[in-house]
Amino acid sequence: DIQMTQSPASLSASLEEIVTITCQASQDIGNWLSWYQQKPGKSPQLLIYGATSLADGVPSRFSGSRSGTQYSLKISRLQVEDIGIYYCLQAYSAPPTFGGGTKLELK
Amino acid sequence: EVKLVESGGGLVQPGRSLKLSCAASGFSFNDYWMGWVRQAPGKGLEWIGEINQDSSTINYTPSLKDKFTISRDNAQNTLYLQMSKLGSEDTAIYYCARGRSLAYWGQGTLVTVSS
Questions:
Q1: E-strand spans in chain B?
Q2: Contact between residue A19 and residue A105 where contact means Cβ atoms under 8 Å apart
Q3: Contact pairs from chain A to chain B, CB under 8 Å
Q4: Are B98 and B91 in contact (CB under 8 A)?
Q5: pLDDT in tens, B20-48
Q6: Neighbours of A72 (CB within 10 A)
Q7: pLDDT for position B42
Q8: CB neighbours of B103 closer than 8 A, spacing ≥ 6?
Q9: Disulfide check for B97: which of A9, A67, B63, B102 has CB 3.0–4.6 Å away?
Q10: B61 in reach of chain A (CB within 8 A)
């Protein structure tokens, strides 16, 4: 199975701050990478697919990028409603595998 | 509006079976792959498996392949997850999701395996 190493495991940031979360794939996965946000007590929601494409209805402060086998999710100006846990998912190779998650909190 | 509603969860004894359902509405169900993901209490997400539009292709995560069976009824717009030989490690919230990109998720149904 492809391993997705997500970092950091937890992150504390201030409002309006730039936040970056990364996922390192254990091998090439092309652009088969998605990002999900899970707010407390809620189901996950798709933010980014194809490594860089914004899902419908997702604010433009979210963006995804790729450098080789490292993938990043950037929140340009952190808002209160962005608090939650973020997961990456690779769907290049079966079975799809999630990263371990990043818990984002307000400082 | 895309809506996915899971049901069938609850308390089940170890070794028993349980079948979950996911009722879909707001989109053309038979046009999409569908999948199941679970989340143990306080833990991360685990992909269980997926099924294509006409049920001709069903993929599972290897560790669950012998315990879980995914099926669908396109006439009823419903996805199913049959779980057997349940153990405490299967205690989790079970989510269904639309598409291989998991673009839309249901609210989940909690399965608790305990005697």
A1: 3-7, 10-12, 18-25, 34-39, 45-51, 58-60, 68-73, 78-83, 92-98, 104-105, 109-113
A2: no
A3: 47
A4: no
A5: 999 999 999 999 999 999 999 999 999 99
A6: 19
A7: 95
A8: A46, A49, A55, B97
A9: B102
A10: yes
Structure tokens at B31: 């046009």
Cβ–Cβ under 8 Å, residues B25 and B44: no
Q: Can you tell me the distance from the alpha carbon of A86 to that of A69, in angstroms, rounded to the nearest whole number?
A: 18
Determine which helix (DSSP H) or strand (DSSP E) holds A67, and give its type and residue range. strand A62-67
- Say if A30 is an interface residue toward chain B (CB within 8 Å): no
Contacting residues for B80 by C-beta, under 8 A, at least 6 apart: B19, B20, B21, B22, B70, B71, B72, B73
Provide mean pLDDT across the span B58-63: 95
Residue carrying structure tokens 């153990």: B87
Is A46 an interface residue toward B (CB < 8 Å)?
yes
- pLDDT confidence band for B94 (50 / 70 / 90): very high
Question: A88 φ, ψ to 5°?
Answer: -105, 160
